[in-house]
Design a protein that fits this description.
By secondary structure, the protein is an alpha/beta fold. It contains 21 helices and 28 strands.
Length: 695
């Protein structure tokens, strides 16, 4: 008889919780999660602060398409666009002398950054490091459009370097491999989505809903043991893996899913695993890199900066930096790497200071008072000429490097990664016995080939390793994931009805079949419906002396048989309806220019019309689905127009609206499910495409 295998998951972060929910969902419930901290979340750490919450770790959902976190959150309307990054004209760049740069300089700086980082050219193959590539691209663009002085451009480039380090999680962009960075994928759509003040911790409730309908209850909490610092995993025996924790506890398991960070592996793998990990895995641990990014949240007694200001970016000249260090000493040099004070969504009185790299690590060693005083000194130095800055009411900060449960923030691929020819799969590959049984499995953001450094990457790897165990037992016939239909009614008590024909379902198709039979004078049939009303996916509900349609809404084509039947009974309205009518409003409350809406609508419509003729044509590789075709046409269109970045951003938002509309219109999950070749097979019968019923 099959015995439920014992599975230990090390780490209750995004990957660990994802793995646990998938295993429980598929019937493997003999699970223990060992967590070194006194909380779940790992590098997701939502804390109560000021008027709402602060994210000491992961803060945003990065992208909408093919993002498992977005897919979990979107149906519940939990996400919102973060204005602090998406609107360039709201950022103020300030010098150490208190000079606020013009809006043009600020916008052009951010425009150049995103143009280069989001549209990596083939020139990158001529560079060893990402930093070398970026600097070359920056000056190519700047020389064509010198929007500021050369000296100021150097200062802005220095700021971009610090900002990019916070994204890559590197000490320097000269450490980041140019070759490897092209293998990192970003999800299409808004890359900076916040949780509307609920916090990233909401993700764990969403994951738990896959296995429970209980609100605000995480059904896997009973599986977690907190403050369990694992110090050894002995997989010498094929039958039982022995896991030991520092408090003296010992656990036995058939499988271990290890989700701790790359930083922990770098520090402890030589002592944590018995026997030592295979050479290829040790090589991967050595070659992959993890850096440190820290945040300091500052609460003020009131908001002293303008409502429309998204934050302050700090730029230094070499002379100002040297003078500052000379005046205050080397102990204050870390302040020169605090590159921005950014406003926080749903926190009207809070600014967040950002710092990355070696000085982020150094800051962790300072006392709260030293950090408090240093940041206030920085604000006074840069902004006191323009603002009256009050003292902070309170401060909270992250310390990812000194925490032995993490030893860093997230992963990047460096020059060393490239030179050692390290592949992510070397880290992700499980340790497997001769019979194919995976005994030690590795998950976490560092083990994702393309989405490393992200929460959605971590979640995917948790699912991946859980599925690996599930598949192992499924192939041996141990798990049956399909629920069998049980007969609950005693056959002797069933009413038996004999008829020549049964129609199952009283939706529009079933009713049409019944009508046709009646008209042919065929009466010996039975129409069976599971619901207590007819209609199926047509569901009209009385509303305010009229009706609303919860299901089908329009008659598509007024020349169809259905339309003609409705016209005979005077059921249809003369009101003409078209898709996409109405006013388009951005998340900042501003109305979108109708000319831009029409431009993108025309692009989408003409592109789809072209696809209608693709049935008998050869489709170019990579464009087999509608999503790829549309996005390719958009990119070509934007490149041809060469609009300023704010206009390009608006056009992308309009395009994303069209994509979401098409997803609804085609009842698909994403547009990459729609075949380009089959697009033209759907045909309207003619006439108006959207005919409404009378109320």
């Amino acid at each position: 008889m099959f015995k439920d295998p014992k599975i230990i998951i090390i780490g209750a972060g995004a990957a660990g919780i994802a793995a646990a929910t998938r295993l429980i969902e598929k019937g493997l419930k003999n699970i223990t999660i060992l967590e070194g901290k006194d909380r779940i979340g790992g590098r997701i750490h939502t804390v109560e602060f000021s008027d709402n919450v602060a994210e000491l770790g992961a803060q945003w959902v990065h992208g909408e398409r093919e993002n498992v976190v977005f897919d979990l959150a979107y149906p519940h309307k939990l996400l919102d666009s973060s204005k602090c990054f998406n609107e360039f004209d709201r950022h103020l760049f300030v010098t150490a002398k208190g000079e606020i740069l013009s809006k043009e300089e600020s916008i052009e700086t951010l425009k150049i950054y995103y143009d280069i980082s989001e549209n990596i050219s083939d020139d990158i193959h001529n560079s060893e490091s990402y930093g070398e590539y970026f600097i070359n691209q920056f000056y190519k663009i700047f020389d064509k459009n010198p929007f500021t002085s050369r000296n100021k451009a150097e200062q802005l480039l220095d700021w971009i370097h610090k900002f990019d380090n916070s994204i890559q999680c590197s000490d320097s962009w000269f450490d980041v491999s140019a070759k490897e960075i092209v293998n990192y994928w970003t999800c299409d759509g808004d890359l900076v989505l916040n949780w509307k003040g609920h916090g990233y911790k909401t993700l764990f409730a969403l994951l738990s809903q896959k296995i429970s309908n209980a609100k605000n209850k995480l059904p896997i909490m009973e599986k977690i043991e907190f403050n369990k610092d694992v110090y050894n995993i002995d997989y010498t025996s094929d039958n039982n893996i022995i896991v030991k924790t520092k408090d003296g506890s010992t656990y036995k398991a058939s499988h271990v899913i290890f989700t701790a960070s790359l930083g922990v592996l770098k520090e402890k793998h030589n002592t944590m695993f018995t026997p030592l990990l295979p050479g290829t895995k040790q090589h991967a641990i050595k070659g992959l890199n993890i850096g440190t990014v820290n945040k300091v949240f500052l609460e003020f007694p009131h908001r002293w900066w303008q409502e429309e200001c998204a934050g302050f970016s700090l730029i230094w000249s070499k002379e100002d930096k040297e003078e500052f260090i000379k005046s205050y000493g080397q102990d204050y040099e870390w302040l020169c790497d605090v590159f921005a004070f950014i406003s926080v969504d749903y926190q009207p009185r809070v600014l967040c200071a950002w710092i990355s790299g070696k000085f982020a690590k150094q800051m962790e060693l300072l006392s709260d008072n030293d950090v408090f005083d240093g940041l206030y000194l920085l604000l006074e130095m840069f902004l006191s000429k323009t603002y009256n800055i009050p003292k902070f009411d309170q401060m909270i900060r992250s310390s990812w490097y000194t925490d032995e449960c993490f030893r860093g923030s997230y992963t990047f691929k460096s020059i060393t990664t490239e030179k050692l020819n390290v592949k992510t799969e070397d880290l992700a590959e499980p340790i497997i016995l001769a019979d194919g049984k995976p005994i030690i499995l590795f998950a976490g953001e560092a083990t994702h080939e393309h989405y490393y450094s992200t929460v959605h990457g971590a979640v995917e790897t948790g699912f991946r390793e859980a599925d690996r165990i599930i598949d192992f037992y499924r192939t041996r016939g141990c798990i049956n994931n399909f629920h069998k239909l049980e007969r609950a009614v005693n056959a002797s008590s069933q009413k038996v009805t004999r008829t020549k024909l049964v129609i199952v379902g009283a939706g529009i198709a079933g009713l049409a079949a019944a009508k046709t039979l009646d008209e042919a004078n065929f009466k010996d049939y039975l129409l069976i419906e599971a619901q207590n009303e007819v209609g199926g996916r047509i569901q009209s509900i009385p509303w305010n002396k009229a009706w609303i349609e919860c299901g089908a809404q329009f008659v598509h084509g007024d020349q169809s048989q259905l339309a003609q039947l409705c016209y005979e009974h005077d059921l249809l309205s003369d009101i003409q309806y078209q898709d996409g009518q109405g006013i388009f409003i951005r998340n900042n409350g501003c109305k979108v220019d109708e000319a831009l809406i029409e431009e993108i609508d025309d692009l989408v419509r003409t592109t789809l019309e072209d696809c209608e003729d693709c049935e008998n044509k050869d489709i170019e590789v990579g464009f087999e689905n509608i999503d790829a075709v549309l996005r390719n046409c958009l990119n070509k269109h934007l490149h041809k127009k060469n609009d300023p970045l704010p206009i390009r951003t608006i056009k992308k938002e309009i395009f994303d609206w069209n994509v979401r509309f098409l997803v609804i219109d085609n009842a698909c999950f994403t547009l990459d499910e729609l075949s380009t070749k089959c697009w033209g097979k759907f045909k309207y019968v003619g006439g108006s495409e959207h005919v409404l019923f009378k109320s």
